[in-house]
């Protein structure tokens, strides 16, 4: 059997520059790269002011760009046939359909922050499979913010770029996501997981060297069709905000593990009790995982991954049969822990496995999928890569 679980690379900056030249008949001023991410643990905690622990992936999105002086933005993607063109002055929230909403949202966010955008030609190329929970959208908005800012004489700090990219998704695309994906893409470093307190925005680079421990992180793309993602995400977020209001706290982050039982008693219905229990226990699991990583005891984090999955499945109710089947098959095949990663309702599953066991673990998922008639899953080994940067 051919190895299917190898490491994917970032797109080539020169190929992206070539595509730009072919499309626009001139030189790009630069090429910027922003990676996708895997969240190790801490799901749906970021919009509750909680804790997250993502790594950046080698999979990344490249954007070649050059300023225009005529107030026009032209956008192309090597992954999308649709070319987009508009006047920057006409960009208003939720007016741009399809993929172009993300990069135009990035321009809109920059303009809202006082960066005058004269116009832009942009060519995008990506190795991040989109819509699978690896955060291609944040890579697209982050890379666009960087390209537009740098070609217009601005140089926002990485955390500022993340905030602008989040603003693009929240305020322009209409997706009420938290700050994790953009922060991972901008702030993560090779060989580390990014521990982030999404309230204070404080971050810590936690060493994450699996190979040194004889371990590997297998990512399984379940290929489950996304079902009602955006509506369900917004609905989860609303129910958390409502629960925080009932409990009289600024955010669910303020409910501690010790205070959980009292909080559950104070809530009016089972659904909100389940949602709150997920968020509170998930925050505690992130802190515990960080403690294990700091102590070099990564293997034991596997049990926390598995507990996180059960919480997403039973309390947050954001998993689907393909995802649960993958987790069960991975654990049965000997994984130290497995969980869905990302917003849910499909997407990817991660498993902490013995280095070298990736192929057999993926084969176990394949077999379980065949039995249930699910589409063939894909897999790769994730290594913590560097965050966004200018490459040309
Ligand atoms: P995720 O961020 O997990 O990949 P999202 O649904 O948030 O999933 O974002 C996916 C969307 O981002 C795509 O539907 C598309 O609009 C846009 N996108 C991502 N990558 C590209 C790309 N290379 N070219 C064009 N659009 C892209
Ligand atoms: Mg996204």
Helix content: 25-40%
How many helices in DSSP terms? Answer: 11
Q: Strand order of the main beta sheet, please?
A: 5-4-6-3-1-13
Give the DSSP E fraction (strand runs of 2 or more residues).
15-25%
Helix/strand-derived category reads alpha+beta
Distance between the termini: 38 Å
Task: Using the 3D structure, state the CATH architecture of the largest domain.
Answer: 2-Layer Sandwich
Any idea how many domains? 2
Assembly type = single chain
> What does the overall shape look like?
globular
Stretches with pLDDT under 50, minimum 5 residues: none
Number-wise, the strands total 13
The helix/strand order is HEEEEEHEHHHEEEHHHHHEEHEE
Bound molecules: adenosine-5'-diphosphate, magnesium ion
CATH class of the largest domain: Alpha Beta
The CATH topology of the largest domain turns out to be Ribosomal Protein S5, domain 2
Rg result: 21 Å
Average per-residue pLDDT, rounded, comes to 96
Give the biggest sheet. 6 strands, mixed
Domain GHMP kinase C-terminal: 292-370
Keywords: ATP-binding, Carbohydrate metabolism, Cytoplasm, Galactose metabolism, Kinase, Magnesium, Metal-binding, Nucleotide-binding, Transferase
Family: Belongs to the GHMP kinase family. GalK subfamily.
Protein name: Galactokinase
Show the helix and strand layout.
Blueprint: H1 13-24, E1 30-39, E2 51-52, E3 54-67, E4 72-77, E5 80-87, H2 101-112, E6 120-126, H3 136-151, H4 158-173, H5 180-187, E7 192-197, E8 203-207, E9 215-221, H6 229-247, H7 260-266, H8 270-294, H9 301-314, H10 321-332, E10 337-341, E11 348-354, H11 358-372, E12 378-382, E13 389-390
Parallel strand pairs: 4-6
Antiparallel strand pairs: 1-3, 1-13, 2-7, 3-6, 4-5, 7-8, 9-11, 9-12, 10-11
Bound molecules: adenosine-5'-diphosphate and magnesium ion.
